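Workshop exercise sheet. Pairs work together: one partner reads the sequence aloud, the other fills in the structure field after running the prediction. Swap roles for the next sheet.
Pair: D.N. / O.F.
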Amino acid sequence: MAIKIVHDYLQTTQNGYVLNVYLSRDSDVEFAEDLGRLGNRQDDAALFSYIHNHYPHTPISQIRMIDSEGDVHRLSLMSVMGDARPEM
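Structure field:
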């Protein structure tokens, strides 16, 4: 199942904007944290689409994904975009 975002929170830090994304319990997501992105391209594309639709003009520098276990996974927006950006 693709990622399902139930809540988000945009946080301002001294290094820019951080988007905190909370995933639903039924989201089955693999993280490739050593690469700073999600484990498959469909999830990368879904996350990119969500950000593009909800925060089109916000310069987000980092994404924190909080899963149903409460684990926090830090991702770089640039690495997610590089692997998932759809043809426009």
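Discussion prompt: Residues 5-84 form one domain. What would you look at next?
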